[in-house]
Design a protein that fits this description.
heterodimer, A: mainly alpha, 5 helices, disordered C terminus, B: alpha+beta, Rossmann fold, 4-stranded antiparallel beta sheet, 20% strand
Chain lengths: 121, 181
């Protein structure tokens, strides 16, 4: 956002837009894909969390479990079928996340570059 | 007297960007500010637009003191040095932005935007995005966008700074089209 600068916002102001209108119509659309990209990365990180949840939350089944923790528990209970099922689901979500991440990255990338070129030129 | 500056100064911390400037522009007059880089030309324009507040002095537009009037209410058109087009909007939407904000009826809005695009030779490009345009085309979009809501003052910051000499000349010659008669 710093690289893009605030000129687009200032232009919106000179055209009569209020602060909110400027934010919703100009700022947010221009950072939309970058924002989604960030949310997806955060989500991926949270989904795969193991150590912190295991140590701090007490990993109570059905309440403070993450999927990797559940996989470990099922595996320790010799419930391999269930463990593999959850693991497969996790892998599927990982692939889905990767797909969305790449797509939003592709959308965000060129826009950010244009933003920079625009302010430099 | 359309625009008048009286002893206007603007300081950013210790740096005086503009100090004690006074001048006036008559209704319908075209005035150019010339000066070295870093001389405060942009700041003067930004002060008139309301994007900066003067540290000292008064600014009048059509006899009314505008120091405390917000930028949105000043009814000015501003063409930025780098045009500052909305990257996520098409040419048409860029030009229509100010009219949308002012809640023009969609038929009037379409007419006004088409008229301006026609006038500036951009009619064919209305569905393009700013990054798909040449420098000169971007500049014309910026001008169309600034003119669309019928501003009472049009401010252009280095209007020929980023276009080649030929486009600049073509443009300067055609300028009379926009000045009110």
């Amino acid at each position: 956002m710093q690289a893009t600068g605030s000129e687009q916002e200032q232009a919106a102001l000179t055209l009569g837009a209020s602060g909110w209108q400027t934010f919703w119509r100009v700022t947010l659309p221009s950072v939309k894909w970058g924002l989604i990209y960030g949310v997806i990365l955060c989500n991926a990180r949270a989904m795969g969390e193991f150590g912190a949840v295991s140590v701090i939350s007490g990993h109570i089944t059905g309440q403070t479990d993450t999927m990797p923790l559940r996989v470990e528990k099922l595996y320790n209970e010799y419930n391999s079928a269930a463990a593999f099922a959850v693991a497969s689901l996790l892998a599927l979500l990982a692939l889905l996340t990767l797909g969305i991440k790449n797509f939003s990255g592709m959308e965000a990338g060129p826009r950010l570059r244009i933003g920079r070129a625009g302010t430099a030129g | 007297m359309s625009i008048e500056l009286k002893n206007v100064s603007k300081r950013f911390g210790e740096v005086a960007a503009v100090s004690n400037v006074s001048f006036s522009v008559k209704e319908g007059e075209l005035l150019a500010l010339l000066g070295p880089s870093g001389g405060g030309k942009t700041t003067v324009l930004r002060l008139i637009a309301g994007l900066e507040v003067p540290t000292e002095g008064d600014i009048f537009v059509r006899g009314q003191r505008v120091n405390d009037i917000k930028v949105q209410k000043r009814n000015i058109g501003f063409v930025f040095q780098n045009y500052a087009l909305f990257q996520n909007m098409t040419v048409f939407k860029n030009v229509a932005f100010g009219l949308k904000i002012k809640k023009w009826k969609s038929a009037d809005l379409k007419n006004r935007v088409s008229e301006l695009l026609e006038l500036l030779g951009l009619a064919e490009l209305e569905k393009r995005f700013p990054h798909q345009l040449s420098g000169g085309q971007r500049q014309r979009v910026a001008i169309a966008r600034a003119l669309a809501p019928k501003p009472s003052v049009l401010l252009l910051d280095e209007p020929f700074g980023a276009v080649d000499a030929k486009s600049a000349r073509t443009f300067a010659n055609g300028w009379s089209v926009f000045t009110p008669t």
